[in-house]
Amino acid sequence: MRRTSIVNYIIVSGISSASTLIVGDSAKISGHTRALAVQRQFAVFFTSEAEFEDYPSFNKELPQPNLPLEKVNMNVVQESPFIKVNRVDVIGLAEASALQIGSTSLINSESRIKHFRQFVKLGNNTESESTESIPLGEA
């Protein structure tokens, strides 16, 4: 039996980076994102500072679950032709995430992010925490 999704309110503050919001059924949901996230003490940025291929985490093959191929007999009884939701409040959907009210057969999502924190190392200053600068291009 096909079901109809009925939603009174959905409040989502933000959706970004290959994320999906679906009310209803879908056959497949795919979301893929890659990012180099750089936080610097001083906002100085250059074009083409780094490439994803420079970092092993972007080149590794995504591990897949080793699921048994045995057949499972299932009897599902859906007593109502509706999926009823009163209210959903979400702060944010980010980095290939999904929010769905309904059903789907396959979800394939992947997010790979390399974070950099680059701060100027201060001499004997013990009041502020500092970290050595990590130049882009070095893993």
UniProtKB/TrEMBL annotation:
One Pfam family recorded for the sequence: GerPE
InterPro entries reported for this sequence: Spore_germ_GerPE (IPR024496)
The name this protein goes by in its record: Spore germination protein GerPE
Organism (species): Paenibacillus psychroresistens
